Amino acid sequence: MPIVSVFLLYPARKEYADALAYEWHQRRFSWYPGLVGLYRQGGRYGLIFGIPNLEDHIRAEENAPRLVELMNRMEAARARVGASRKVFAGILPSAFVRHGIENEHLAEQRHLTARAILYALDEVVARHSLSENAPILVLGGRGYIASEVLQLTTRRNVTSIDVGELEAFQNFVNVNRGHPAVVVNLTKSGALSEYARDFWPGVIVLNEVYPEPSAEEIAALEARGAICYHIIGVEGDAWPAFPKAYRGGIPCCASLPISSDDPIPVLVSRMSGDARSSGH
């Protein structure tokens, strides 16, 4: 089989890690990628590796040397199976960039993910028959993926804010309250709860953050009459299937290169409102 990619993921939350391995096992294999699955996109295949480390471990400054080791181990795995690229889930790409850890595939992965987000945005706008000039708010605009999304967004009515820019967020709310608007969440896990209380009926949230919005976040959005969609990823198969809201597709960050002239077969799932469904 043509293995063209190796993909590394980590547990979304502590309960995910505890469901898969005992504490002693997590400690023993900390920062050591283990083979956990296989995925297919079109006629091409990728191997899925996992580590037991959580986002707090990845963000910690003292673990920068561990990230270097992790990159080296994934490079060894890539070379061992003859794959052409190595890609990473969640905040791992931005953590590598922050610490100056090079990977020739990070820029390509970033661009592919940004393109998929924009295809998902077009899908949501079309589902709700919004005008081309509908206001769009990007949460986390200075982030690793968000900055690429903004560079590719040239024909939309876009406002961007980053974490803590509450005045800019309130200005967007004051100007657009009562009118349809799309909020693209590219911040961090749990951030939606910080903004949901100011939303209104007519707000459509498109979430790309890993993991998917929690039940509490969905409830907070529904209480304000907002609708929430989650980007599953792109069309593909995985063995075993990716969990929960990622089931039925391949995460955008793991997707294989697609020509800039070809559409991205993105999958979007509705997570709140009267009709929960998925499609592309």
Describe this structure in words.
The protein has 280 residues and is of the alpha/beta class. It has 2 domains: 3-104, no CATH class; 109-235 and 262-279, Rossmann fold (3-Layer(aba) Sandwich), CATH 3.40.50.720. Helices cover 35% and strands 23% of the residues. It has 10 helices and 12 strands. The strands form 2 sheets. The protein has a 7-stranded mixed β-sheet, with helices on both faces. A 5-stranded mixed β-sheet has the order 4-1-3-2-10, covered by helices on one side. A hairpin with a 2-residue loop joins strand 2 (34-41) and strand 3 (44-50). Helix 6 (106-127) packs across helix 7 (144-152). The longest helix has 22 residues, at 106-127. The chain is globular.
What order do the helices and strands come in, and which of them pair?
Layout (H helix, E strand, L loop, with lengths): L2 E7 L4 H7 L2 H6 L5 E8 L2 E7 L4 H5 L4 H18 L3 E4 L3 H7 L7 H22 L7 E5 L4 H9 L4 E5 L4 H11 L4 E5 L6 H5 L6 E5 L7 H9 L3 E8 L2 E3 L26 E5 L7 E2 L1
Parallel strand pairs: 1-3, 1-4, 5-6, 5-7, 7-8, 8-9
Antiparallel strand pairs: 2-3, 2-10, 9-11, 11-12
